[in-house]
Amino acid sequence: METSCKSVFPKCYDLSTRFYVKSKYRKDAGNLREKVIDLSELLVGFSLHSLNPDKWKWLPDTSGLFSVKSCYQVLLENSEIIVLDSNVLTAIKHLWRNDAPSKVLVFGWRLFLDRLPTSWIGKSIIAGVDGWNHFKLFGEMVKMKNSERISHLIWLATTWNIWKLRNNMIFHGAILNASSLLDDIKAFSWAWVNGRYGHK
Fold it and tell me: If we measure between CA atoms, which residue out of 68, 48, 71, 69 comes closest to residue 59?
């Protein structure tokens, strides 16, 4: 385990950040000299030049330079591969084709993958059980041009507003008002279908 010089030599570090030595350090001058000697021995072989500024080095890449590709590779190498059900994948593809706000689409995606943070209050709720199936059936409800996309926007407005109400009840003590919830679902659905999110 790597340890910083600051934690190993706190007094030396403290002195290096000051312009003068306070009297309390004069009492420990002998001990401080020993620490400086120890620190000097640790730094043997290091060449510090004022003309060569410090710089960041990205260790996962041999060039030392950060790139999204190398970061992605590190994530792939250190991640657990999860094989998703083909129905879930199909639902996710349909989900991303909708014109709802990004945060709502991410919410739907997390719902399908059962990755919503539902255990904050000490209870775990299985939120995404067959969520893809509910999404699919909701998309088949209306029979008209662009009906699947419109139905999916209504589904997103419904689940999003239920989720927000649930959080407000848990964290802010809000009281369930079904009429207000229905009004919010209608308003969001209307805005997304007819507004800037409803047109391609």
Answer: 71
